[in-house]
Amino acid sequence: MPWRSFLKLIRDLGFTYDASTAGSALRFDPPHANDVAITFHKPHPDPTIHPVIAREFGKKLMKNYGWSEVDLP
What we know:
It comes from Mycena rosella (Pink bonnet). By secondary structure, the chain is an alpha+beta fold. It has one domain (about 5-70). The chain contains 2 helices and 3 strands. Strands 1-2-3 form a 3-stranded antiparallel beta sheet. The radius of gyration is 12 Å and the shape is globular.
């Protein structure tokens, strides 16, 4: 999955982020103010999220927000 596709997906889920942060770590603020922010690292030098990393991203989202695969678009 290209990084830009992940960014579109995360925005579609209601998250916001600041693209001007230094380094590869980006903080994503959830749509609900009471939820905690989550951080993902942009892959580099190739901006492709490989399947193993994509699964880890999904697990992190499900763990932090109590989601299941049914909740995702």
